[in-house]
Design a protein that fits this description.
Length: 402
């Protein structure tokens, strides 16, 4: 691993490149996310429950695959380096995203997204990559800035995707996204440098030993659970956001563009405060920021149940974005400062597994609840998840202080 003296001269260029890579990855995901259900709807005249189910599956299988294989990739990352993992993810995503634009059956989309999930993980590996290159005193601000990359991509993606889908069609949007992931692969290959000493498999410490050496194991496990809960809440509406907007608009108007705007609104809020919260984390500690974010998220989800127009929904999602800036970056900062660097790949991969499991649970939860009840009922459940998570964090902080 790089010494502190070497880091200032090398990590900034790598950071900028990985920021761009995370931005483009977030952009590509969010360009197609708002209208995935609408795209599936064009393939066959499915009923409401079937359409919600296939839309949920198209999201969920990606994260199911991630949850299963992430520990394997994390172990390989600690042996071979995180740069190789970023190349693996961006390379496979180039082909799978492009191929989604060629399909004619919903199950083909589900299969391709399962393959994508099994080999994905660019953003999480990029975070682990830069975490190992960044001085500890800059961890909070760097983690927050890395989040702004994904958030900025998620912010612009729905707008770009909505416009592109409206003018050129859904399939062309997938082709463009695949080409952009090819650019991410090339940028990562030629413009990043990892100060990494390969660790032979025989010399790697078992995870049991690493966990035994951690000063606060409960803190790490609580962060994993927090990632699961937060991601479940954030992803619960993702598969059906375009269908919710369509119902609020009563089928009239440019649903793709409106869905893109609504999907993008959290990004505006996160982008507005992420950098400031990152600096604040370095001074007051990430746990205080995380607690504040959970309180805000719980309160913001409740009024979404009562929305009657896409613009009201967009307003509350904007406020959710502000709360979101205090959630996963705080978790990643806690992990960065609490575990040894030689275990970053595996620890972050475990966290990615919990994040993927949360995305899978959230996607299916949203699909089933909206299919059985109505779309807004999803927000009641997500508010409850955030409240339970808040209680867990408060109990953990109380136990740590004692």
């Amino acid at each position: 691993m790089a010494t502190e003296a070497k880091q200032p001269a090398s990590w900034r260029k790598t950071f900028i490149t990985l920021w761009i890579g995370c931005f483009m990855t977030g952009l590509n995901f969010s360009m197609t996310m708002p209208f995935m259900a609408l795209y599936i709807e064009t393939l066959y005249p499915y009923g409401k429950f079937e359409l919600n189910l296939y839309s949920g599956l198209a999201f969920a299988v990606t994260y199911l695959a991630q949850a299963i294989v992430s520990p394997l990739w994390g172990s390989l990352a600690d042996q071979k380096g995180r740069k190789l993992m970023c190349l693996r993810a961006s390379g496979v995503m180039t082909f799978t995203i492009f191929a989604v634009g060629l399909v004619h059956h919903a199950w083909t989309i589900v299969l391709l997204r399962f393959i994508q999930g099994a080999f994905s993980g660019y953003i999480n590996n990029a975070v682990a990559f830069i975490a190992g290159e960044t001085p500890h005193e800059r961890s909070g601000s760097v983690m927050a800035n890395m989040m702004t990359a994904n958030v900025t991509g998620n912010l612009l993606g729905p707008l770009v995707g909505g416009l592109l889908a409206g003018f050129a069609g859904y399939r062309v949007t997938f082709f463009v996204c695949g080409a952009m992931m090819g650019i991410v692969f090339l940028l990562t290959l030629f413009n990043t440098k990892e100060h990494f000493t390969p660790i032979p498999a025989k010399k790697m410490k078992p995870m049991k030993e690493i966990f035994r050496q951690l000063e606060n194991k409960n803190l790490i496990f609580t962060m994993f659970v927090t990632t699961l809960f937060v991601q479940s809440a954030l992803m619960s509406i993702a598969p059906i956001v375009s269908l919710l907007v369509k119902s609020l608009m009563h089928g009239a108007g440019n649903v793709s563009l409106a869905s893109g705007i609504v999907a993008a609104m959290p990004g505006f809020g996160t982008l507005l405060v992420a950098s400031r919260l990152g600096v604040k984390m370095d001074s007051v500690g990430p746990l205080k920021i995380l607690t504040l974010g959970l309180v805000a998220a719980t309160l913001v989800f409740i009024p979404m149940y009562f929305v009657s127009s896409p613009w009201t929904l967009g307003f509350w999602r904007f406020l959710l974005g502000i709360a979101n800036a205090a959630l996963l970056p705080a978790v990643q900062t806690v992990l960065t400062i609490s575990v040894p660097r030689e275990a970053f790949g595996r620890i972050f991969s475990y966290n990615q597994s919990f994040q993927a499991a949360g995305s899978m649970i959230g996607s299916m939860m949203g699909a089933f609840i909206s299919g059985l009840f109505d779309y807004q009922a999803v927000f009641v459940v997500t508010a409850m998840l955030m409240f339970i998570n808040l209680i867990l964090i408060l109990k953990m902080r109380r136990a740590t202080a004692a």
